Amino acid sequence: MSRQQDEQGVVLTAYTSNSEALPAISSTEQTEFPGASRRTGQYNVQRGKAAGAALGSSSGKAPYQRCSSQDSLDEQAMLDYFKEVEIIQCSGDAETQEDLQLKVADEGEQEEAWLMEAGLATLFDESASDGEDSIVLLSTLTRTQAAAVERRVETLKQTLRKRNKPYSVPDVREIFKPSPASQSQDEAESTERSGSNKQEVEGLGNGVGPDAPGGGADAETDINLEVSFSEQALIYKEGLKITQPQNDADDRLPDFKVSQDKTGQTRVGDLSAEDMKKVRRLVLIEMSALFDTCGIEVKAHKALKVKVRESGLFGVSVSTLLEQDQRRMPGTKVPLILQHLISHIEEQGLDTEGVLRIPGAATRVKAVCHELEHKFYEGMFPWESLKQHDAASLLKLFIRELPYPLLTVEYFNAFISVLKLPTNKQQLQALNLLVLLLPEPNRDTLKALMEFFQRVIDHKDRNKMTLNNVAVVMAPNIFMCKGFRSKISEQQEFAMATGTANIVRLLIRYQNLLWTIPKFILNQVRKHNMENQRKMNRDRAVKKLLKKMAYDRERASNKQESNAEAEEGFIRVQAPQFSMVSMAVQLTEDLKASDVLMRFLNQERSLSVKREDLCLYEMGGNIKERCLDEETYIKALLELNPSAEWVIKSVQH
Is 624 helix (H, G, I), strand (E, B) or coil? Predict the structure, then answer.
């Protein structure tokens, strides 16, 4: 929307004209597989005021007839994309915006920033405060992750040498040099892990395609979350000798399957902030290792100028919006204006043909935008008069006018480069890692959007909006940052169209998997925590020997009681928030987290909280805190974390 310059400030673009950042995408037909399972939405949208009479159908007509079975990114779908681009250009919302240039990191600067973000600043700066933690982190890395660190340390070392600057970057051979005491143990673990990895991903790298006789069709759709993605990519590459990305003529979206893990899935939000910090560092290293293994270079960018609005609704950063929303409604994770727009579109019915595709009237949308800015927070905006297509246009405008891309400047190129990876599975794995790398406000907002898009698609028989239709309409709004079209050729623009639409398809279709923390990352966090505990125990032994001895005697007594219960086939479950402080639960092979919660509810009948607001937590031992998936088998998890305690708490969704 065109507004006064002093209101909107400068809007950031995350596009780089380097054609290498654009994936080479085939325009061949791509077909959607039906039947993707979908979990209930993670975010509770705050409902707006009761809407007036719902619009039975749109008064606008589509410029051409479409069929609800249109499932491929064909020529007609691409027309939708470029029509959306034209609508964006004609809307005038970027008329007075100044295009910002992105700064490509200087030689060595990117490596320094990467090492700092990965928690490894001590590798180039001896004064960094995370020296001990860096050593522990390095001890948890896989061979491909270690190679990614080595590559960046060596590049930084060479850069500093060229500048004739004094540097304290250690030799990469010294970084990962094992201590004599642990060398034999590490070698044994490495051998065992390498053999296990090869067996677990054998179907990925045997040189047999899914369509060949006896080929591993199941292996192509099975997602292994227990082995590092970059390790799987290396085995795949070595087995198939792939040198160039391959795009199948019939590149369909399969129904990927994740084998059941008895220790439970871990979703975003299940871990403590301290453990999530470790997750993010490991995910950054793993994401870089995955792209390195596949020979894909991804350069991060940063803006030269950043000047944005500090209040309001449109053209305000997600983090700023949440700050002002949380003052009104503590615990808000998704901007209230976005929640209200989604709620309003749904209240008026998702059966409306062309919802999200047919634009609202430009002059009316402009007026409504101005009115929202002044009346939204006062609760005076007349939601009952807002037409559905106008609300959809406002939702897209909100996304486009974010001063920073929802996918962030830092990882924008990485998202675009995902489709350079050789298989759908690796593309999905890279997206999983990138989603986990997003700042929490961006990640939560993106998830709310993907859940909404899926609900629109669920009504495709009536609204004619299939997965592909939604993807091609929303892709330019998510990826077309300010001023970006002027920097690319028509050929690049078409590649960008098909590529970004495919990325949005993957984000929508596989959102339940993408917002999950892989088990191999969680296992590395557990190892990190155990190493930290060993170091803390050694320090405590030196500093507080007498006090520790008394503490250990008391703890040993308590532990004997706890272990005695476990040996007798019981676990002790704590519930400090409730009147029943603790209870003993018999431990069986089939005992799940859901069973523990059900037994607690049967005994605690006076609870005021809902069943869905209760969670069984794994606490202590090799994890700080983890909200358990209800399908978690307690005995299997106890074997992984013998020192864990079990606590029932209420959680705020």
Answer: strand
Q: What pLDDT band is residue 43 in, cutting at 50, 70 and 90?
A: very low
In whole angstroms, give the CA distance from residue 402 to residue 478.
Answer: 10
Q: How many CB atoms lie within 10 A of CB 181?
A: 8
pTM beyond 0.70, yes or no? yes
Comparison of pLDDT for 556 and 253, the residue scoring more: 253
Q: Is 617 helix (H, G, I), strand (E, B) or coil?
A: strand
Judged on CB neighbours under 10 Å (0-12, 13-18, 19+), 198 is middle
CA distance 210 to 503: 23
Buried b (16+ CB within 10 A) or exposed e, 359-383: bbebeebbebbeebbeebbeeebeb
- Tell me if 142 sits within 8 A of 171, measured CB to CB: no
> Looking at residue 57, what is its pLDDT?
36
CA atoms within 13 A on the CB side of 366: 13
d(CA 300, CA 413): 7
Q: What is the distance, to the nearest Å, from the Cα of residue 128 to the centroid of all Cα atoms in its chain? A: 29
Give 575 or 443, the one with higher predicted confidence.
Answer: 443
Sign of CA dihedral 309, 310, 311, 316: positive
pLDDT in tens, 482-531: 645 556 666 777 778 888 999 999 999 999 999 999 999 999 999 999 98
Handedness of CA 503, 506, 509, 510 (dihedral sign): negative
Q: How far apart are CA 653 and CA 578, in angstroms?
A: 19
List, as one string, the DSSP characters of 486-530.
GGS-HHHHHHHHHHHHHHHHHHHHTHHHHTEE-HHHHHHHHHHHH
102 φ/ψ angles, rounded to the nearest 5 degrees: -95, 140
The answer to whether residues 115 and 315 touch, using CB atoms and an 8 Å cutoff, is: no
Segment 182-198 mean pLDDT: 47
